[in-house]
Amino acid sequence: MFNFLKNLLEKASEGLAGSAGQQAVWQNAGLSETQFMAVVLLLQLSHADFDSTEQEQQLVLGYLQREYQLAPAIAQQVLAQANQLAADATCLHAYTSKLKVLSETERLALLNQLWQLAWADGSVDPNEEMMLRKVADLLFIRHSDFIKAKLANQPA
Predict the structure, then answer these.
(1) Cα separation values, 15 from 19, 58, 90, 141, Å
(2) CB 37 within 8 A of CB 99
(3) Which residues, in sequence order, are CB contacts of 141 under 8 Å at separation 6+?
(4) Counting beta carbons within 10 angstroms of the beta carbon of residue 73, is it exposed (0 to 12), middle (13 to 18) or buried (19 or more)?
(5) Are 93 and 37 within 8 A, CB to CB?
(6) What is the C-alpha to C-alpha distance for residues 92 and 38, in angstroms, rounded to an integer?
(7) What mean pLDDT value characterizes the chain?
């Protein structure tokens, strides 16, 4: 019984990181696991309203190119891998636990990016806001900072 549970946990850990071939995409692109998990989190948010638009995908693609200086072709490959992982996700904790190593400034910058993505279609779906609240809590972001980021990224 113990071995069964051990094997199950090992398979779950492997599934989170992906197979060796899949890891190579983001690792060969020079991304750390933390950076890749941030991209997956962005994509999870884009799926939160059950309508991931092309505009949201392009925003995440731009984020990869701007933040991590990836060439368009490499960014597209990383995006495809992150999309696959985000679509298979069952909980936020697996990804946010990897992001707790970020400094407060980096966590706030990620929250701002998440809000930009949520506002990309002009409105924030209740599922998106709920997910953002949960992410902010899991990343130990103060509620006041959560509200400031929401208002700062709201379209004019």
Answers:
(1) 7, 26, 12, 28
(2) yes
(3) 107, 108, 111
(4) exposed
(5) no
(6) 11
(7) 85
User: Given the structure tokens 């992001």, which residue do they identify?
Assistant: 99
Enumerate residues 6+ apart whose C-beta is below 8 A from 45: 114, 117, 118, 128, 131, 132, 135
Residue the block writes with tokens 């509200």: 147
Q: What is the pLDDT of residue 19?
A: 45
Planar angle of CA 126, 129, 133, nearest 5 degrees: 140
Which one, of 84, 98, 93, 81, lies nearest residue 37 by Cα?
Answer: 98
Give the pTM: 0.80
Give yes or no for a contact between 42 and 95, defined as CB atoms under 8 angstroms apart: no
Looking at this protein, which amino acid is placed at residue 102?
L
pLDDT in tens, 126-152: 999 999 999 999 999 999 999 999 999
Nearest to 12 by CA among 81, 72, 90, 127: 90
CB 78, CB 39: distance < 8 Å: yes
